[in-house]
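User: Could you write out the 3D structure of this protein bound to D-glutamic acid? I've included everything you need below.
Assistant: Certainly. Input first, then the structure.
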Amino acid sequence: MMAIDEKRGCPIGVFDSGVGGISVLQELIKVMPNENYIYLGDSKHAPYGTKPLEEVRSLSFRNAEDLLAQGAKGLVVACNTATSAAVRLMRGKYPQLPIVGIEPALKPAALEKEHPRVLVMATPMTVQQDKFKQLMARYADKAEIYPLPCPGLMEFVEAGDLDSEQLHDFLQQLLAPYLDKHLDSVVLGCTHYPFARKMIRRIVGDSVTIFDGGEGTAREMRRRLAAADLLNPATEPGWVKFENSVSTEAELQLCRRLLKQEI
Ligand code: DGL
């Protein structure tokens, strides 16, 4: 058994189906700059959002086991899809481990004002899962909620395309049916989408509030680590190690670029 002092210096494991979870990693570093991180992106098997549930579960467990084998002291499932498919089972398998998942930030959007109109953009799997249906039911009398599955959107971010005309046209077509609904807010319910936020903003306009779950997830991880007395007492900035199942130099360069990308 590792002594608790030693365990506090261990990295936090973060995973996603690809590079999207780097939007959550950015928030984790803001909230806990002195922690160390291993970020595992499973770009080889992306997208998860259009795969069968069982496959996403087994890929998620594989990612978790890989990070635990490298000494992770806790896990952030930086993927809404993997969270909805596997986080409950993961907590069952590792009951002692701080595990935090991400879900669409519907709560702050629904409570922002009196009966707002909220568009939730997410993967097909996320919107189909019971976890999301229960979340929607919780706020059904507080807001008008439009769930919008967005197959094909994460692929732009995986390709490093955050501002092309093709991305603009794709989003314009996807969002067109909602542009006359007087939306109050858009929830980015997939961790890839904050990297397309500027383009989404261009289409929905400045009066719409855009929410994502990254910051809340990072804060929750800090709470969980504090409760387990596992926060790193280091006073220096920590390190980040990127791993990707497509382990080419170009892929790792994209990870480093996205970590610095303003979202
Ligand atoms: N980034 C993932 C999420 O938050 C999903 C993208 C995908 O693999 O389909 O849902």
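The first helix runs from residue 4 to 8.
User: Perfect, thank you.
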